[in-house]
Amino acid sequence: MDQQAIVLKIFEFVILVFALSLHEAAHAWTASRLGDQTARMLGRVTLNPIKHIDPVGTILIPLVMLFLPGARGFLIGWAKPTPVNTRNFKRIVRDDILTTLAGPGSNLAAAVASLLALVIVAKTTAIGALAVKELAVMGGIDPQLMAASPIVSPMIILFYMGIWINLLLAAFNLIPLPPLDGSHIIRHMLPYNALRVYDSLGMISLILILFFGGPVISMMVSPAWAVFNRVLLAL
Predict the structure, then answer these.
(1) Which of 20, 163, 41, 32 is CA-nearest to residue 98?
(2) Reported pTM
(3) Between the ranges 11-25, 56-70, 73-87, where is the mean pLDDT highest?
(4) Which residues of 109-132 are buried (b: 16+ CB within 10 A; e: fewer)?
(5) Is the model more confident about 86 or about 69?
(6) What is the reported pLDDT for 72?
(7) Residues near 78 by Cβ (< 8 Å), separated by ≥ 6?
(8) How many other C-beta atoms lie within 10 A of the C-beta of residue 135?
(9) What CA–CA distance (Å, rounded) separates 224 from 234?
(10) pLDDT > 70 fraction of the chain, expressed in percent and rounded
(11) Mean pLDDT, rounded, for 61-89
(12) Which of 132, 137, 134 is nearest to 160 (CA)?
């Protein structure tokens, strides 16, 4: 593995950790705004990764996906779940759904912010415009162009990865299977007996995510990714 490949993997890992921290901080901040201070009292309303890191989901699994030969696929991970006490909400169903959606919503907002950053770079620098279009078309930047823009090109790659990873996290967490965010929304729509079965899926839910999560995420992300790429190609 060459030095550039290692640097790109480090970029991806750093972006993932930030995206996970943003996701959990958004849950905590929204819960606090809606009346539940549990996460705020635990210091979770912060982008500091130390407050959110899960050793397995934030460190081990992503590093295995990045560096173990044959294990690379979607770069997905998770952080420590944000504690939420729904009894502190004034309108439990509405506020719980809003708190849940804040996580994926923050990742979608980060993807849009990354896109806007790429637009600004492309509009303000000639090399930036070339690098953005090349990245959108080829999925990479020519080494000669990288050498000609040692500051702009890494910035562009970071923002481009930021779009992809944040879209992946948003889609992954919206899968309606426990313990993902999507399940918190679905469970409010189920009758009591169905809810008991749904909450007890346990290992079955994990198997479904492992075997079918990739295709489902791809189906969810592909339309948004195509729109983002069209915007970059139009610059």
Answers:
(1) 32
(2) 0.92
(3) 11-25
(4) ebbeebbebbbebbeebebbebbb
(5) 86
(6) 52
(7) 20, 54, 57, 58
(8) 22
(9) 16
(10) 97
(11) 85
(12) 132
Instruction: Give the residue carrying structure tokens 């469970």.
Output: 187
Tokens of 59: 């460190």
Kindly tell me if the per-residue pLDDT of 147 is higher than 90: no
- Rounded Cα distance between 180 and 109, Å, is 19
State residue 182's pLDDT score.
94
Write down the domain spans for the chain: 3-233
**pLDDT band for position 88 (50/70/90)?**
very high
Q: What tokens does 32 get? A: 């606090």
The mean pLDDT value for 73-80 works out to 83
DSSP 183-235: HHHHGGGS-HHHHHHHHT-THHHHHHHHHHHHHHHHHHHHHHHHHHHHHHHT-
Task: Enter the tokens of residue 62.
Answer: 């992503």
With 0-12 CB in 10 A as exposed, 13-18 as middle and 19+ as buried, what is 62? buried
24 is catalytic: yes
Calculate mean pLDDT across residues 184-204. Answer: 88
Task: Check 12, 24, 96, 181 and give the catalytic one.
Answer: 24
Exposed, middle or buried: residue 215 (CB in 10 Å: 0-12, 13-18, 19+)? exposed
